[in-house]
Every structure is written in C-alpha cells, then in structure tokens.
Amino acid sequence: TKSVIKNIQWITGNNFTVERGQEQIEEYISTWDVHVSWLHWSEFLQEEELKHSKRYHYRVCWSVPTRRKPIPRATASVYFVIEISKIKPATSPVEVFFTLESSRLIHRPDQHPFREKWLKDIIESKIILMERL
C-alpha cells in the first residue's frame, strides 16, 4: 500500500524569516503520523551563505519520556534545511529537505512520507550502544 504524503504550503523566499521557518517546520511535523507519547523541541542552528542560495539549518529533537523515566535514555534528531534561492524569483516557495541523525539520505517533504520507525531505530541503536559500553 502506498503511503499518503502529507505536506504543507511552504512560505515564499520573500516572506521568509528564521522564526517563520521554524513555525513552518513545526506545522509540517504536525502532519506526521507519530504516537502521542513522542515529544519534541526544535531549534534554529545556523545560516549558511552559498553562491546561489542561502540555507537555514534547524534541528528537531525527539524523545519518549515516561512517568518512570522522565529523562529519556536517548533522543533522535531530525535536521531540516530551508533553502532560499538567489536565482529564482523571490515569490518562489522555499526548498525544504531533512535528514535523520546517523543517515545521509536526504528526504523532501513532498516526496517521502515520514516513518515513526526511523525515530525508534535511532533511539534503539543508541541504547544498544550505551549498554555495550
């Protein structure tokens, strides 16, 4: 069965601000099909100046705190980049892509449905590593 790809209407380059970018990432994340036990927080990391664009880097950190363990043993990060072209018209939507911690695969919101399993796998591998150490 093919998963439905949920996306949002991304802001245009001329209306972009760092704060609005973070709000849009939060809005996009709200479309993800993750269990309510997952909590997250997001932060702006840096601005990167390139020849033909500007990139804005963000991190969204996920965990599953419980009553017994309010401080989770491990977290999983998803890194977002919002790119604003210096070549395309300012009224063009920003480009958005994200990667998962420990992965180089680049995901685009309009092409890849998010899978909760990705977060679980990152946390499980960290816990296994900590137990071995």
Describe the structure.
With 133 residues, the protein is α+β, with helices and mostly antiparallel strands. It has one domain (18-132). It is built from 2 helices and 4 strands. It has helices at 18-29, 116-132; strands at residues 39-49, 53-63, 76-85, 95-100. A 4-stranded antiparallel beta sheet has the order 1-2-3-4. A hairpin with a 3-residue loop joins strand 1 and strand 2 (53-63). The protein is elongated.
Short description:
With 133 residues, the chain is of the alpha+beta class.
SSE inventory with pairings:
Blueprint lengths: L17 H12 L9 E11 L3 E11 L12 E10 L9 E6 L15 H17 L1
Antiparallel strand pairs: 1-2, 2-3, 3-4
* Backbone shape: elongated
Mean pLDDT across all residues, rounded? Answer: 93
State the total count of DSSP E strands.
4
Count of distinct structural domains:
1
Note the gap between the termini.
40 Å
Considering the chains and any ligands shown, give keywords for the structure.
29% strand, 4-stranded antiparallel β-sheet, 133 residues, elongated, alpha+beta
